[in-house]
């Protein structure tokens, strides 16, 4: 526990948790008394007295409707401190093509990997796990991360964070009655999600020796030139997922030809071409731009447009970016 609750680790965690959120009241209040808050948090962690606080729940509707559970800021500091300790241990287990929540392995790296594999293969098996984060089994998850530390207090801390949230099982779900679910809003959930599917990654790449594979959180792609082989892999993956009480989402999981385009991480990839932005992605940005313009929230609008520009430049979007750069509405006259 000394590594997690170390002063330098907690200070770095507080900085990371508050990055870009300095105007939020809870973050601003924390920073006014940060040293005393960190000392109190450190004492609780070392004594084993730390308990997660209540979540704040709200819904988002893009890219799809989701319930977000936001932890109090002091808990987010603990999440960052724990991940700073856990990530180097867990990431050594991950395969090279496991992306998300890892330094240098974000969406840009995942898209580049997808582009290369699309250029080399005729078919792709696109898979998505049904309600991934709400269905993570607590008992299985804790068994998977139990080897991170031999310190019982670190294990107790992990168990406390996992047990602080639980979802109601859906009708017909596997393992009804078992505690399940991790909050989408937690940093720890992203790391644990990668760990939860690490066994699937190794089964695909090592047991089945199928290297043309990549995964970003719960979206994964298997490429190949043999439809029969990919069909057999699909059946095997369903067995692997069932063993950890998960299942593929239908009809999102399907076999495609790469020539018709591979939708992944907001873009559509085709052999020999630069990826194009998905229509749904463009519509979400346009809706957000209009909403912020109506509210005259120009600070958030500026941030949103800059983020969109950086995102869109990864694909074939020169004309689209020029269209947004031009003034909208009627042009000016000769004297304008």
The gross shape turns out to be globular
Order of helices and strands: HHHEEHEHEHHHHEEHEEEEHHH
The structure class reads alpha+beta
Spatial extent as radius of gyration = 22 Å
For the largest beta-sheet, the strand count, sense and barrel status come to: 5 strands, mixed
The total count of strands amounts to 10
- Strand residue content: 5-15%
Low-confidence stretches: 329-336
Q: Report the span from N to C terminus.
A: 67 Å
Estimate the mean pLDDT confidence: 89
Q: How do the strands line up in the largest sheet?
A: 3-5-6-4-7
Fraction of helical residues: 40-55%
Number of continuous helical runs: 13
Topology:
Elements (H helix, E strand, L loop, with lengths): L6 H12 L6 H8 L1 H14 L8 E5 L5 E5 L2 H19 L6 E2 L7 H14 L2 E6 L9 H8 L6 H12 L23 H10 L1 H10 L5 E4 L2 E6 L2 H17 L10 E4 L4 E3 L2 E3 L6 E2 L1 H17 L2 H15 L5 H8 L11
Parallel strand pairs: 3-5
Antiparallel strand pairs: 1-2, 4-6, 4-7, 5-6, 8-9, 9-10
Describe the structure.
A hairpin with a 6-residue loop joins β9 and β10. The chain has helices at 7-18, 25-32, 34-47, 73-91, 107-120, 138-145, 152-163, 187-196, 198-207, 227-243, 279-295, 298-312, 318-325; strands at 56-60, 66-70, 98-99, 123-128, 213-216, 219-224, 254-257, 262-264, 267-269, 276-277. It contains 13 helices and ten strands. A five-stranded mixed β-sheet has the order 3-5-6-4-7, with helices on both faces. 49% of the residues lie in helices and 12% in strands. The radius of gyration is 22 Å and the shape is globular. The protein is α+β, with helices and mostly antiparallel strands and 336 residues long.
């Amino acid at each position: 526990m000394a590594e997690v609750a170390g002063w330098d680790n907690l200070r770095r965690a507080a900085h990371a948790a508050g990055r870009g959120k300095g105007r939020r009241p809870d973050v601003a209040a924390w920073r006014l008394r940060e040293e005393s808050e960190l000392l109190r948090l450190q004492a609780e962690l070392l004594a084993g007295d730390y308990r997660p606080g209540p979540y704040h729940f709200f819904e988002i509707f893009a890219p799809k409707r989701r319930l977000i559970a936001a932890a109090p800021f002091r808990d987010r500091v603990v999440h960052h401190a724990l991940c700073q300790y856990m990530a180097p241990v867990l990431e050594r287990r991950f395969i090279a093509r496991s992306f998300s929540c890892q330094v240098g392995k974000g969406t840009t790296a995942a898209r580049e990997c997808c582009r290369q594999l699309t250029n080399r293969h005729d078919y792709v098996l696109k898979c998505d796990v049904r309600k991934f984060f709400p269905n993570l089994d607590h008992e299985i998850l804790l068994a998977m991360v139990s080897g991170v530390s031999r310190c019982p207090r670190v294990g107790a801390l992990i168990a406390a964070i996992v047990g602080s949230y639980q979802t109601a099982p859906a009708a017909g779900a596997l393992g009804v009655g078992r505690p399940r679910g991790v909050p989408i809003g937690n940093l720890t959930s992203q790391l644990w999600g990668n760990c939860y599917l690490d066994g699937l990654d190794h089964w695909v790449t090592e047991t089945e020796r199928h290297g043309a594979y990549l995964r970003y959180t719960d979206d994964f792609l298997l490429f190949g030139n043999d439809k029969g082989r990919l069909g057999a892999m699909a059946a095997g993956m369903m067995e692997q997922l069932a063993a950890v009480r998960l299942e593929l989402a239908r009809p999102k999981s399907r076999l495609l030809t790469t020539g018709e385009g591979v939708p992944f991480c907001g873009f559509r990839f085709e052999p020999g071409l630069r990826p194009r932005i998905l229509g749904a992605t463009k519509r979400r940005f346009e809706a957000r731009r209009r909403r912020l313009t109506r509210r005259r929230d120009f600070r958030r609008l500026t941030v949103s447009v800059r983020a969109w520009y950086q995102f869109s430049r990864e694909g074939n979007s020169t004309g689209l970016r020029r269209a947004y750069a031009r003034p909208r509405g009627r042009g000016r006259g000769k004297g304008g």
